[in-house]
Amino acid sequence: MFIKIPPADLVRLTDAQHERNMYAHPNPVARGIFWQRLEVGYRLLGDVPAGSKVLDFGGGSGAFLPALAQRFADVSVVDRDLNDARRVAAHYQLKNVRLVEKDISEWNNTEMYDLVVTMDVLEHFADKSVPRRFLDSRLKPNGLLLVSLPTENWLYLLGRAILGKTKPADHYHPAHELVRYYRDAGYTLLTHRYAPRLGPFALPLFYIGLFRKSG
């Protein structure tokens, strides 16, 4: 079952003013859209074995950790700032979660993972090859990659304008560009969805995709 952290707990546990923490946004529509990204991604993992070794790459907000930790036996999160994730893990007493507070360029161990989760992370790298090389080195052969990517289409831009937000300077690549890049790099797209959903309809604000690394 997907675990959604209550807004009051998030405000108490995390830095609600941080750009990454839209999960605690005062606007319930904006907050709901961001939670739906995670929930849609979580559902795509339904057939992944519970014993899989999982890495949440860039998951410093801690928002996905309770859901991943109750679904999988071994979960790690790597980010340059883990203050929020650390407090979430302590609050939920997540004993099977390891926290790695490092830039990926400085993390030089040799651990390999069955699944790497990147929820709105890959678009923040100007050089697309930097995270791709990291993923190549961390994913086992035939390992899975879950992504969430902003589409940056007209609907996305409209939503940003309604919320009074400007495009972050480090949103370098839209979803379609990154999907094409990873497919060209040998990652097979298994399935994808759009989020958020309004009843039977999906609004294409975020592209949620599950890839398999080549063996």
TrEMBL record:
Annotated SUPFAM superfamilies: S-adenosyl-L-methionine-dependent methyltransferases
Pfam families: Methyltransf_23
PANTHER family given in the database record: TRANS-ACONITATE 2-METHYLTRANSFERASE, TRANS-ACONITATE 2-METHYLTRANSFERASE-RELATED
Organismal lineage: Bacteria, Pseudomonadati, Pseudomonadota, Candidatus Muproteobacteria
Protein name: Methyltransferase domain-containing protein
The species this protein was found in: Candidatus Muproteobacteria bacterium RIFCSPLOWO2_01_FULL_60_18
Highest taxon above the source species: Bacteria
InterPro entries: SAM-dependent_MTases_sf
UniProt cross-references to CDD domains, sorted A to Z: AdoMet_MTases (cd02440)
